[in-house]
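Ticket 4471: requesting a sanity check on a complex prediction with flavin-adenine dinucleotide. Repro inputs:
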Amino acid sequence: MLLAAPQVKLPTASSIDRAKIELERRLGPSKVLTDEEACAPYASDDSDAAGRRPAAVVIAASAADVAVALAVAEACDVPLTPRAGGTGRTGGAVPVAGGIVLATHALARIKDIDRANLIAVVEPGVITGHLHAAVEAEGLFYAPDPNSLESCCIGGNLAENAGGPRAFKYGVTRDWVLGLEAALMGGRVVRTGKRTVKGVTGYDVTALLVGSEGTLAVFTEATLRLVPKPAAVATALALFTDVRAAASAVAAIVAGGVVPRCLEMLDASTLEAVRQAGVSVDERAGAMLLIEVDGDAADATLMRAGEIVSATSGCVDVVLAQSGAERDRLWAARRMLSKATRRMARHKLSEDIVVPRTRIADLLARTDEIGDETGVRHLAYGHAGDGNLHVNFLWDDDAERPNVERAIGLLMRATIALGGTLSGEHGIGISKAPYLALEQSPDLIALQRDIKRAFDPKDLLNPGKIFPSMGHAAC
Ligand SMILES: Cc1cc2nc3c(=O)[nH]c(=O)nc-3n(C[C@H](O)[C@H](O)[C@H](O)COP(=O)(O)OP(=O)(O)OC[C@H]3O[C@@H](n4cnc5c(N)ncnc54)[C@H](O)[C@@H]3O)c2cc1C
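Returned structure tokens:
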């Protein structure tokens, strides 16, 4: 079951032919896939968004290759979609107009880890988990940790401004980017930002490009901030009768002055999926919090968090992880949630809305009402410390799809009504574009379209993303 593709201008057959010839002439045939079977895997990502099979896929091996692909795309009037690990959840890497896919996964060098200046210089195809391992081997730390870190790449993290469980204490990808090298439509390459900790020269183009979802420029290098690796980490699991009790504990931890690095919540249906996946969870539990702290006083801080949580009405049990291996097992269970819940139905859509953390319980209560109103099964888990919840809708029969669309629309409206935002980390892409106008004014959307035009006047770089293609469908 796929989302309908947005309305975009398709390239002509003659412009496609010219682009293929030019790409092969300038890059050599080994870097350009044109065979239908070879190109087919590049038509989709980890969302339900429908794409068109690209006519050509460029496997870039250098920044110069990226620049050539962008020059050819503009000269031949062919749309181009950048791609990294293909794990995106909103269709960002899906080529809705076909054309060229520019794959950056082979640009995978960690060029420098500079201990004295606490920076890493990396190419966009570096797998996020590989960067973690490399800097941690040097006693350093790069915090952004999307749960897809074994397969997503820094380029995709930059484009989506990815977050993860550790965002509660350490922020999201943008907070860790000092500077970028990026190729613009037409092939010019610019360097933005700095290699220094401080620096305020000119507009903050680095911040603009991070989170631009592959619509403004293609990253070829990033200079990332590092910090010393925290001395110790301590993790606990707290069980509650229901999500309202767990949400109260989240608020109590924060009000108590404890700053965990992660504060993850699982609701009753998610716990059921975990049980079905073979992990034993206390039958009294209708919600769970995973609490992790770090730093020199990690054990003492966790004890304090444990005391606060135990005093919360509805707390059933608090279990401290006794070893690194036990901690790893807890996180393995958290990271497999996406797959475990996927097994519960033929189709699953995962939203990543955010509300003020004090409104989490209200949002989940409204989600239950939406489930009742539409008859669509749902569950929720996610980064409760940030108020960022993955509300998942599940269905088996294709005929249920209109109800699912209605449920998503109602969820988006409820999120905005509670003072929240449509996306905490997955981006808008194709999936959420119809709802953008619920959150942003026509003037703000028009301003962003103007920015897009300044970078890409012909609308060839990743067209059909972020902005609603047919007016403001959500209004
Ligand atoms: C199991 C699972 C768990 C997940 N958990 C999280 C999570 O905890 N937090 C989170 O934030 N996300 C999560 N995600 C979503 C996804 O992993 C992130 O959005 C990730 O940042 C995408 O990276 P990618 O390399 O796969 O990018 P892709 O999917 O290939 O592309 C994503 C976007 O980046 C653009 N892009 C790719 N490379 C470049 C480049 N070099 N220059 C410019 N633009 C580029 C693409 O055009 C597209 O718009 C999860 C996904 C899955 C499947």
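Notes from triage: The radius of gyration is 22 Å. Leaving this open until the requester confirms.
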